[in-house]
Every structure is written in C-alpha cells, then in structure tokens.
Amino acid sequence: MQTIEVIDSHTCGEPTRLVISGGPDLGDGPLEARVERFREHFDHYRSAIVNEPRGSDTIVGALLCKAHRADCQAGVIFFNNVGYIGMCGHGTIGLIASLAHRRDIERGDIRIDTPVGAVQARLHADGQIEVDNVPSFRRAAHVTVTVPGVGEVTGDVAWGGNWFFLVTDLAAGDRPEWRIAAQNIEALTDLTWRIRQAVNAQGFPKVDHVEIFSAAPSATANSRNFVLCPGKAYDRSPCGTGTSAKLACLAADEKLAPGDSWIQESIIGSRFAVRYRWLDRDKGEIVPTITGTAYITSEAHLQLDPDDPLCWGIRA
Ligand code: PYC
C-alpha cells in the first residue's frame, strides 16, 4: 500500500492540499521543467490526490519540492482537477500556514520557487500571510468577444501568475441572474464558461480563468468577484492570481495608486487585502501583494490501494 502524506487547509474557503511526502519524484532542475515531467509521466498522481474519491473539483493540490532558484527556501507546483496552474495565491497562503503548522517555518519571510517565478511570503504574528506575487501585467485592454447565447462581452486579458479574462458588471443591464451573488453560482458558471470558450476561440487560447467583477455589497470592500477556474469549479476565495491581474488593470488605468489598499471580496464574501508597487511602469509591470489567512482542516495519509479500481482517481 502506497501512502501520500498531506495537509489540507482552506484560504477564504478555497481548499489547498499540500503534499508533504509520498508524491512523485520529479528530480531536479527548474520547476518549469519539473512540472512538464509531472504532466508527462506522473499525471496519475495529480488525479489520485485531488480528484474524487479522495478529493473534489474544488481542491488545489500543492506539491512541495526542493527549490531550484538559489534564493528560494522551498518550491511548489500547483495542480487541480484538470491539470497544472502556474501560481496560486490562495494556495501559497495555504502552503505557508501548513508549513507553520508543522513548525517547519517561523514567523518572517520565506521565498518560494514556482514554475512561473519566485514569490516572497511573510508570516505575521497574528497569522496573516502576505505574498508578493510574480510580476503581473495587462496584455490587452477592452477586448470584445461574441459569446453565443450572451452577445458581445468586453474585458481585459491580464497575467497574475495565470491568464485571466476580466469583465466588469455584466448584470448592469437587465440580467439579474448574472448579479454576483451566491444564489447565482450556477448561472455565473455557465456564463463564464461560455465567455472562456469565446475568448479562447477569438485570439487568446491561453486564458484559462474568467473573472467577473461588480461593486461589493458593503462599503468596506472595493469589489466583489466571481472567478471560474480551468476545471469549471469556481474559486471560493477572491483568487490571489486573479486579483493580481485585476491590480495590473487598475494600475494601468490609474484607478488605484501604488501602496493603496484594495479589498477584494469573493462570491462567498471572503476577502483578500491587496496592494501593488510598480516594477516597470513603461511595461505596465507591477508586483502585487496579497494578504490573507488560511486554516488547517486536516492532516492525513492518502491510501493508494493497488486493488482499488479507482486508486488513481476519477479522471474527467
Ligand atoms: O488564489 O490564485 C489563486 C487561485 C487560482 C485558482 C484558484 N485559486
């Protein structure tokens, strides 16, 4: 019987399953090469760890690895129900909380290697975790796509560690079912899935997350969002990489000054506080900082029984 040691946590409601030991041996080298090895030769581990019957469509897996970059103390590869993602904001907060829970790290700074760059995390005494994300930028502004059954939708394409299409307030017209509210999750999932297909077909094949924004119901947050992840699950958290992409757009439009706080609320009402600094103003590149908290939900040893016909998970 093979076992995989994991720590489960949630960040603003979005789960992370950190693999401590028993995961695939991806060898050494840059993390971008190791994630390709994972995809090509060990994808059954991804499915065993996050898919049913041990997991669910919502769980983001995080394989703890040795760093390749000399200035990093640890490395991580993130994955979900359908594949691999570059960076993950809620997942990094979950990783730090889990390492602190194991007493592997103390309060202070830790630099983490990922397949899309290094990120700097800080664990504070009150449990708050800050993550300086990878450089983020807007690739294209005001892109209009024709979405079957919906009509024309205009949004921005931006990078925040993953590729996003960001749309503001589709319910402003006469479509109350697209209001960003928990009772509309099914309609919002269908809408954002259609938008993603249209965006992919109409010039941006790499976009794998779609994010819709509106004003927040309370004056204590700047915005509420609904984020569709690549495997059709919605993000319960405000999405760290998505909010980084949003900050890049706000910075480019001069709607938020460097250092000013932005409170991003998720569809379930959970929140990240975020800010940015310019990295290269001419190129529109910012460094976003995401602040949030994660809670440990379990420590477990996943059992991989060779007699179990669903040992490697139910694959879509
Ligand atoms: O927090 O960056 C994030 C994220 C990506 C997918 C789910 N959460």
**How many strands in all?**
17
Estimate the strand proportion: 35-45%
Structural class: alpha+beta
Task: Write out the distinct hetero groups bound to the structure.
Answer: pyrrole-2-carboxylate
In whole angstroms, the N-to-C terminal distance is 25 Å
Backbone shape:
globular
Share of helix, binned:
10-25%
Are there runs of 5+ residues with pLDDT below 50, and where? none
The major pleated sheet works out as: 17 strands, mixed
The number of helical elements comes to 5
Any idea what the radius of gyration is? 19 Å
Mean pLDDT: 97
Q: Give me the strand/helix succession.
A: EEHHEEEHEEEEEEHEEHEEEE
Explain briefly what this protein structure is:
It is built from five helices and 17 strands. With 316 residues, the protein is α+β, with helices and mostly antiparallel strands. The chain has a 17-stranded mixed beta sheet that branches.
